[in-house]
Amino acid sequence: MTKPIALAIKWVLIVATLGALLWIAIQLAAAGNTMAVVIAGLVGMGILAVYATRRAVPLKYLVPGLLFMTLFQLFPVVYTANLSLSNYGDGHLNSKEESVTDIIAQSVREVPDTPRYKMSIATAEGGDPTSADLVLLLTKPDGSTFVGDKAGLTPLPATGVEKTPVGKITKAPGYTVLNARQANARSKDLSAIAVPTTGGGGVKPVGLSEAFEGKATVTYDAAADKLTDSSTQPPSVYAPKDARWVNVADPTQSFPQGWKESVGLANYTRIFTDSTIRAGFLSIFAWNVIFAVVSVLSTFLLGMLIALLFNDPRLKGKAIYRSLLILPYALPGFVTALVWKGMFNQDYGIINQTLGLGIDWLGTDLGAKAAILITNLWLGFPYMFIVCTGALQSIPQDVREAATIDGANAFRTLRSIIMPLLLVAVGPLLLASFAFNFNNFGLIYLLTKGGPFNGADTSIGSSDLLITYAYRLAFSGSAPNYGFAAAVSVVIFLLVALMSIPGFRRTKALEEVN
Fold it and tell me: Taking the CA of residue 155 as centre, how many other CA atoms within 13 Å lie in the half-sphere pointing to its CB?
């Protein structure tokens, strides 16, 4: 490739990258994310400064790695840490202003003797009908058409709009109209829709084909920072408390819509001061450490012993045996976990039937933990077998012969010669395996889902790891709490980091053996 062509290709790539960053910045600016726009601009300036000059040659190779590390490692850590300082969760997803708007919109009641809209349920074109934000395509009695969403009513141009004889819209440019089955599947989302209109009114769906415009029964006094619900007698007054609108006369009543706000270190304090959570957290942590340590040691020892066996030059057919032993590692882990779950079934599982046992493997604390360790041993030993096989084959044969000449037996050779040299190669991998098993969400979730659970507290399971506990806090239960789950995730990160530091130091010491 000639120099002019290479230079042209370089500038085409630079311009394309800057164009992509400009497009991203425009989208971020439209969303009102000023800080992200500034970061995108700084990234673009950095790329131009590094790649448009002949200076900073090392940075030309380091910048892609640094960008991806920032995007996929540093940013998730910083975002999770920031989330852990908030009350973000079910009922606390939006700002205070948005909660007021939503409460007022949800309080809309139909005004008697008012005409209704013909309504179709749709999503923006290209959106997933099962999850994308819903919009209402509305036709007024006078035939004018509108699009309704949480921002309000927007006129819908008649060009390209198709309607039934009664006025129900069946097609509109830029939107995908949902059929009855799709709309029924989103009934929960549909019931939450309230399109705000001028004068404190709103439009709400009635069934799947009609909507009404009504008046809100809740009003907001910005000066007093209070909501008043006129649908009760006497009217109920709600004031802000703990990021919720709480009834002043009856503190047990509140609107479900709260708002997101900073809570400082409250989530971390709750982990260690709430007696129920603290006891559960400590028991989960203890099992978490035991699971990770036992999994690493058991898979390593079994993999190493099999590798030593097949490293004997006198053994025939080693290639076939090695291929068969790698099969558990080659199969998808989630499939293997589900197969083992069936094998551990108390009544029909092959383990109990073959051995004549009646153990409730997945229904008791010890049984579930034993099942997890056995399954993870099956899943993990092939990896250690492959690693140890490669490391053993890199050890010079003359080193072993020298040990034999010096009178060392097989055990002494293994302990004093092979193991130190082996650990130089596999030591960092053992640390990586420990970190992986400490957060081995897939195995626990597929095999036991963290259970069994005791009747007193169904949020903490006997076989839970910290990561499955955090997942349950964030995505399961009646009131998911993302902020608290993020705090648990940060604690997990710090624990793994603190436990890994001594291991890395020991690994560095092992390098002196080499």
Answer: 5
Q: Which of 270, 121, 264 is nearest to 203 (CA)?
A: 121
Which region, left, alpha or beta, applies to residue 453 given φ > 0 means left and ψ of -120 to 50 means alpha?
beta
Q: Is the peptide bond before 328 cis (omega within 30 degrees of 0)?
A: no
> CA 52 to CA 195: how far, in whole Å?
50
| pLDDT for the residue numbered 410 | 80
> Do residues 454 and 280 touch, judged by C-beta distance below 8 A?
no
- The number of residues in the chain equals 514
What pLDDT is stored for residue 202 in this prediction?
Answer: 83
Any idea which residue has 């092992």 for tokens?
510
Strand partners, 451: none
User: Average pLDDT, stretch 323-332?
Assistant: 86
Are the beta carbons of 457 and 277 closer than 8 angstroms? Answer: no
Separation between Cα atoms, residue 28 and residue 48, nearest integer Å? 21
Return phi, psi of residue 280, to 5°: -65, -40
> Distance between CA 312 and CA 443 in Å, rounded?
34
Contact 346, 359 (CB under 8 A): yes
Query: Which residue has 């060392």 as its token pair?
Result: 408
Secondary structure, 3-state, 257-314: CCCCCECCCHHHHHHHHCHHHHHHHHHHHHHHHHHHHHHHHHHHHHHHHHHHHHCCCC
Q: Do 372 and 468 form a contact (C-beta atoms < 8 A)?
A: no
pLDDT tens readout for residues 389-438: 988 888 887 887 787 787 878 888 888 888 888 888 888 899 889 999 99
Assess contact for 312 and 489: CB atoms under 8 A. Answer: no
Question: Which position has the token pair 């596999």?
Answer: 426
Of 123, 95, 93, the residue nearest 32 (C-alpha): 95
Share of the chain above pLDDT 70, in %: 97
